[in-house]
Design a protein that fits this description.
By secondary structure, the chain is mostly helical. It contains 14 helices and no strands. The longest helix has 26 residues, at about 195-220. The protein is globular.
Length: about 280
Amino acid sequence: MPIHDQGYRRYAGLRKAPGRAWSVIARTGIRTMVARKPFIALLLLAWLPFLVRSVQIYAAANLPQADFLAPDARLFRQFLDQQAPFLFFVTVYAGSGLIANDRRANALPLYLARPLTRLEYVFGKGAVLAALLLFVTWVPAMLLLVVQVAFAGSLAFLRSHLFLFPAITLFSLVQVTVVTLLMLALSSLSRSSRYVGILYAAVLFFTRAVSGIVYGVTRDSRLSWISVSSNIEQVGDALFRLPSRAELPVAVPALVLALLVTVSILVLQRRIQGVEVVS
């Protein structure tokens, strides 16, 4: 049997620029979620409000007796509010196991033993959840603008509401960024995706309940910053140029959200670490 030389050989494969490894994690994670029929059903359900709002816009544009349904900035803000429950379920379903499952399988050392930095790992995992959340928030909201122009047959609404483009985009980015980083931070704290989902629900519902109780006792809406959801809603109202839901400067909820993002990043920095091998 001939013996072949197993000495040094030049690498003959494709060389990819550094910093792109996160895209492999993102593509794999999105494919995994889209392959699940229950998740596809959830996404389809999340688009039902879009169909309802499209019918409303059509009626307002073509039926004289439906003038009261004419779209305005409040319609798009209300639509994004309607998407909040779907945002919650998609976050729990797709995000709770992103890091927790890797911790349970002891896969983090395997990830970080490769040419993959902690930042790329977190960014790849976050991209999975962020892409799915934008699909049920930013994408349908922007399509509603297209639907309005198509049914109206005029750019008049668009010209008078140009601020809706940045408002929808910025609000969706704020919402998705806060939710994604919060979920990733919680997912890094446990090996059980089920426990992470419960913990995420507890954070949202408990802070909302405490805020409601405080308001019921004091009748002072300035303490609504206690609720994570309320802070996101108030920032959204400001971006859409609508009256605030609380007697509170928008800088306060924006600062609270920035603090929440910062804490989430610090938690991820502490929890996502490789294993140092000492020889």
